[in-house]
Amino acid sequence: MSDSDGNTVFTDKEKSADAVKTPVRVYCVGCYDMVHFGHANSIRQAKLMGDYLIVGVHSDADIIKYKGPPVMNERERYKMIRALKWVDEVVEGAPYYPELEEMKQYDADFIVHGSDITVDPDGNETYRHFRAAGKFKECQRTAGVSTTDLVGRMLLMTKTHHLQAHNPVTGDDITADKPGATSTSTMRSPYTGVSQFLPSTHILHQFASGIEPKPGDRIIYCAGAFDLFHAGHVDFLAEALKLGDYVIVGLHTDSEINRYDGSNYPIMNIHERTLSVLACRHVHEVVIGSPYKITEDLLNHFKIDIVVCGTRNTHVEPCVDGSDPYEIPKKKGIFRQVDSKSELSTQIIVDRIIANRLRFQRRNKAKEAKEMRLIDIMEKKKQEACAQET
Ligand code: CTP
Ligand code: C5P
């Protein structure tokens, strides 16, 4: 029914039918090892397909059994998925190969997975039963990032993903044309192999909270690298949020991180780090490339009430001019420290990978070989179907 201006008008009956509409429950499942913005983007898309999102995360024991040890343990992986702002519920230790029955148990209407292929131990496509039952929906896989790719970046210590990485003192480019700046793209699979991530304002818009501070909100500011966004960062941001109402994260530029952490860092460039941080439910806004020194201008511009820094794993390197980056908020009496109670750091994650270099290299190769086998089979099937048609 429409009014005289052509606007849709709902009858009381339609309104009450709408009010009792049962929410659509969506299910996703995965390892979610070293949660990155590709995982976050799949979860964001899944949430948009319904009203209530349940995410199953596999246990360490199952991942060890079917794939090889994860980099992040189950406690860390469960925490990371819970911290994603689109997630309503987490199923801990969800079965590695999902079954239709299991989805019914969660009262889910369908399962969502990315456009990459996953294969069960018998070489069959994992989601075939869900597809056959009309209970499968596909989301768009995010190109240019995977756990396998991140492991590759750390093992090879590649730098080609860095942006504007030049030595701030000499002005030398420390990325593409220097030794060691190899690409991880030795892989052929379009899924785990490296293709380029193309940051756009569209994806930024999709990840952004869109929430502005309300009058009277206490605005919190925290700055850092937030590289390989991890459970320690989540704990830190949860503590920071307790001090106010609205959290702004200032991300240091890639070249700033090169300066204070060495030229191999960051592992994720500023576009990638922006999306990872924006996906966190404790964050409302991100400053993409914030100044290392917290200036009066920055404090005024964002109307910041409190500046927060963690007590653990903190890089409070002096600025290039030797001054303390927190000098101004300290003088104004708005500087606070919080304890995340987590010892996790980007360096610990890199160390875990380096310590298990061979195991991870084998895992990466095996994963791609499995994908390539399935791609070949699918290609042959396609060719056979074409030949039959002609
Ligand atoms: N996913 C995605 N985009 C990516 C990476 C993952 O959409 N770039 C999606 C997958 O399609 C899946 C979910 O995230 O629906 C969980 O993925 P997971 O099983 O953790 O695998 P990967 O991140 O691909 O990790 P790996 O490379 O170790 O397989
Ligand atoms: O190291 P990075 O710059 O990414 O840290 C960003 C912020 O997170 C810092 O304030 C740091 O102290 C905090 N942090 C924390 N606990 C961790 C890791 C980081 O409080 N385990």
Structure description:
By secondary structure, this protein is an alpha/beta fold. It folds into three domains: 117 residues, Rossmann fold; 84 residues, no CATH class; 145 residues, Rossmann fold, CATH 3.40.50. Helix content is 38%, strand content 13%. It has a five-stranded parallel beta sheet. A five-stranded parallel beta sheet has the order 8-7-6-9-10. Strand 4, helix 6 and strand 5 form a beta-alpha-beta unit. Helix 7 crosses helix 15. 39% of the residues are buried. About 6% of the residues have low confidence. The chain binds cytidine-5'-triphosphate and cytidine-5'-monophosphate. Cytidine-5'-triphosphate binds next to helix 2, strand 4 and helix 7.
Q: What is the helix tally?
A: 15
How large is the share of residues in beta strands?
5-15%
Percent helix range = 25-40%
CATH architecture of the largest domain: 3-Layer(aba) Sandwich
**Ligands, ions, cofactors:** cytidine-5'-triphosphate, cytidine-5'-monophosphate
Poorly predicted runs of 5 or more residues: 165-187
Task: Give the helix/strand class.
Answer: alpha/beta
CATH superfamily of the largest domain: HUPs
The average pLDDT is 86
H-E order: HEHEHHEHEHEHHEHEHHEHEHEHH
Number of domains: 3
Shape: globular
User: N-to-C terminal Cα separation, in Å?
Assistant: 51 Å
Radius of gyration: 23 Å
CATH class of the largest domain: Alpha Beta
| Main sheet record | 5 strands, parallel
In CATH terms, what is the fold-level topology of the largest domain?
Rossmann fold
Strand order of the largest sheet: 3-2-1-4-5
- How many β-strands, per DSSP? 10
